[in-house]
Design brief:
CATH class of the largest domain: Alpha Beta
Number of strands: 10
Number of helices: 19
Shape: elongated
Structural class: alpha/beta
Largest sheet: 8 strands, mixed
Helix content: 40-55%
Length: about 475
């Protein structure tokens, strides 16, 4: 039997270029900045994050709110372990667009890396609401839920962001009371609110409007305004009602650009203070931290006992020393039994890819396969004795070659499937479970004697684009 290794190729460049193109028309028109962006991205995808960050900083000097640059700088800092700097980039993105899913997820990862799991959960929960089908966010959410249940801790107190300053003029409270009693129009009440905000007497979190407006004001908001005027509730409760109406665009308050800029600056300063408090708490508490993305730890597990997890030497020999599978012919059909040895895996791996092997077996059992012009019925049986096995199966993290996701000896022999690569963001990132299963199913197809095909919808097509379990760039 002629034996050779088959590989799956991956066109990963199209994925990276699609995600990290500039997102500003004016930015794209600046050829010099566009070249800088391309240069930084090449460094980024090669894992040279420090050099990429220096170029991103040059770009941000001219385009300080370019969200794509901020997000890539955030990811680069995260991969370098600079979690506070990473969080700052994502925070600025969310100041300008609170719905940015990558930034929300990045905030969750960053807080998870600092051991602030409740804060991380808030961001993961918000992100999954906006992108419910994301495997990456689901994996992070599962992680943080498990950690919170296992490791109780005291979250760092956040700085207040809706403090009322003293000396509120009496006429303001009078208008609030009259408004609650429907004695003045909404416009007059809004004018009073604008006075409070413009003069920094109260601080309202900025809301970015989409132009829509609701007409009905909830009863409880007007009731709160009346109670506040009579000093029956705290200032913070009154502000909560105003914030609710702004967030739901029931009222629209005109805030000058200077106030907006100053408020954003103050928000950022408060956030920096919050991060410093978190760092102090980590040092004081000697807090246990379990990092959200386990990809780097998986590599360490596999490198500790390299030869135990890899069949590299056996691959070079091909399948010549493996016994042929047992088969019989009934009604002009092959009935073939492949005995499979499944290599053990390091303990404590984050994703259960081993259990999907049975699904790959089941796929070929239920698929019409033709070998030597006969219908072939394929069965797989897992055995413990390596010398009796027709196929050895293992999962690896070593580099199998540029763009290679897995390989297998033709007809019998070794099947190796990679668990991740460096093609998503320049650091090693684990594939999601469905990708690993698809690669395994493909490679098992080679092990039973099937070649590549030209139909891109067929499992034996020669290339695929993997999906990642934890990479922020989806």
């Amino acid at each position: 039997m002629v034996m050779y290794s088959k590989i799956i190729g991956i066109a990963f460049f199209s994925i990276i270029l699609l995600v990290i193109n500039p997102d500003s028309d004016s930015y794209a028109q600046e050829s010099s900045e566009s070249k800088l962006f391309d240069e930084a991205n090449e460094l980024f995808t090669n894992g040279q994050y420090g050099q990429a960050i220096m170029i991103y900083d040059r770009i941000l000097e001219k385009f300080p709110n370019n969200s794509q640059t901020l997000k890539l700088k955030g990811i680069a800092n995260s991969n370098l372990g600079n979690h506070q700097e990473s969080l700052k980039q994502f925070f600025v993105v969310l100041q300008n667009n609170s719905d940015d899913v990558l930034a929300l997820t990045g905030m969750g990862v960053g807080f998870g890396n600092l051991g602030e799991y409740h804060e991380a959960k808030y961001y993961f929960d918000t992100a999954i609401e906006k992108k419910p089908d994301s495997i990456v966010i689901k994996n992070y959410k599962e992680f943080v839920d498990k950690v919170i249940s296992k490791y109780p801790y005291t979250p760092t107190e956040k700085p207040g962001n809706a403090d009322i300053k003293p000396n509120i003029p009496d006429w303001i409270k009078s208008i609030a009371r009259w408004w609650s009693e429907n004695k003045v129009q909404d416009e007059e009440f809004v004018n009073a609110l604008e006075f409070l905000i413009q003069n920094k007497i109260i601080q309202i979190e900025l809301v970015y409007e989409d132009g829509s407006k609701r007409s009905e004001i909830p009863f409880w908001v007007k009731q709160n305004a009346g109670w506040w005027a009579e000093e029956k509730i705290e200032d913070s409760d009154f502000v909560a009602g105003i914030q609710y109406m702004m967030e739901n665009q029931i009222i629209q308050i005109q805030i000058s650009d200077s106030i907006k800029i100053n408020q954003k600056d103050q928000e950022f300063l408060d956030f920096e203070k919050y991060l410093r408090e978190i760092t102090n708490n980590i040092n004081d508490e000697k807090r246990y931290i379990e990092y959200p993305n386990p990809s780097a730890d998986v590599i360490k597990k596999f490198l500790r006992d390299y030869n135990r997890w890899n069949f590299e030497e056996e691959v070079s020999k091909g399948g010549m020393n493996f016994p042929d599978p047992d088969y019989e012919v009934f009604d002009s059909e092959y009935h073939i039994l492949y005995k499979v040895f499944v290599n053990e895996q390091p303990s404590g791996l984050p994703l259960d890819h081993v259990s999907t092997l049975e699904d790959s077996f089941e796929f070929w059992k239920n698929t019409n396969v033709t070998l030597n012009n006969r219908q072939a019925n394929i069965e797989f049986e897992i055995i413990r004795e390596k010398h009796e096995a027709n196929v050895w199966v293992t999962w690896v993290v070593r580099d199998l070659g540029q763009g290679v996701l897995g390989h297998a000896n033709f007809g019998k022999g070794i099947v190796e499937v990679t668990l991740g690569d460096y093609n998503c963001d320049g650091s090693f990132q684990l594939y999601d479970v469905s990708t690993v299963q698809k690669i395994m199913t493909h490679e098992l197809g080679h092990s039973i004697g099937l070649p590549h095909v030209t139909d891109p919808d067929n499992i034996m097509y020669q290339s695929m684009s993997p999906k990642y379990a934890y990479c922020l760039i989806e």
